[in-house]
Amino acid sequence: MKTMVNIALPKGRLGEKVYALLKNAGFSCPELEESSRKLVFENGEKGVRYFWVKPSDVSIYVERGAADIGVAGKDILLEYRPDVYELLDLNIGKCRMAVAGPTGFRDSAGRTLRVATKFPEIAQSYYNEKCRDIDIIKLNGSIELAPIMGLSDVIVDIVETGKTLKENNLEVLETIVPISARLIANMASMNKIFCWNF
């Protein structure tokens, strides 16, 4: 009997792109391509079991061993620092983590900078390297609203095209790090993965 490799796919367009890559590599799962509300799909002949996961949870499934491999954005890996192997940059889902603020904003080092973000660890690490005092305001959505309403001076967030920023009179002030999708693996599953279908 073939060893089954469990693969956590992020729900949405990124997961669909990743599945297309794996399908082209010979690891198709016709059941996954059907319209359904199922979350787990198997192809016993190929030795693969796919399951859909919220993108921010993929690294947890991989770290805890429920998945042997998965795909997570570099932003998730930097923010949560899961104990996983980062095997490959897939060069898809490209964007960047950036500091953005009102057009023409100038930082004043004489006071604490207020930073709104969904990524407090990334923001804190970035500003620690700059020896800059900050007050992190943790938000879960509509980050661009924070400087508009005076809640923060700047934001740290993912920027793809910058269109949302521009429409709200905000601009990228600094790029922190490029972001893309990464293939990750569970530490204990590496032998299983290397022997998979070879």
Q: Tell me roughly what share of residues is in helical segments.
A: 10-25%
> What low-confidence regions span 5 or more consecutive residues with pLDDT below 50?
none
Shape: elongated
Oligomer: single chain
At the fourth CATH level, what is the homologous superfamily of the largest domain? Periplasmic binding protein-like II
The number of distinct β-strands equals 11
CATH architecture of the largest domain: 3-Layer(aba) Sandwich
SS-derived structural category: alpha/beta
Total number of helices? 7
Query: Can you identify the CATH class of the largest domain?
Result: Alpha Beta
Mean pLDDT across every amino acid position: 93
Report the CATH topology name of the largest domain.
D-Maltodextrin-Binding Protein, domain 2
Give the strand line-up of the largest sheet: 2-3-1-4-11-5
SSE sequence, one letter per element:
EHEEHEHEEEHEHEHEEH
For the terminal residues, how far apart are their CA atoms? 14 Å
Key phrases:
198 residues; alpha/beta; D-Maltodextrin-Binding Protein, domain 2; 2 domains; 5-stranded mixed beta sheet; 7 helices; 25% helix; 34% strand
Structural notes for this entry:
The protein is built from 7 helices and 11 strands. By secondary structure, it is α/β, with parallel strands linked by helices. The chain folds into 2 domains: 104 residues, 3-Layer(aba) Sandwich (D-Maltodextrin-Binding Protein, domain 2), CATH 3.40.190; 84 residues, Periplasmic binding protein-like II (D-Maltodextrin-Binding Protein, domain 2). The strands form 2 sheets. It has a 6-stranded mixed sheet with strand order 2-3-1-4-11-5. It has a 5-stranded mixed sheet with strand order 8-7-9-6-10. Helix 4 links the parallel strand 7 and strand 8. The radius of gyration is 20 Å and the shape is elongated. The chain starts with a strand and ends with a helix. The mean pLDDT is 93.
